[in-house]
Amino acid sequence: MVEILVVLYLVGLLVVFAGPVAGKWTRRAETMAAISTARQVLAVARLEAVKRSVNIDVRISLSPDDRIRLQTIQESPAATLADISLSPRIHFWRHGGSQDDVTDGVRFDGDQIVFLPTGGVMPPEDPSTESTRGIYLADWEGKNYFRVTVESDLSGKARVDKYVGSGYVESGWQWQ
Question: Using DSSP, how many helices (H) and how many strands (E) does the chain show?
Answer without folding.
Answer: 2, 10
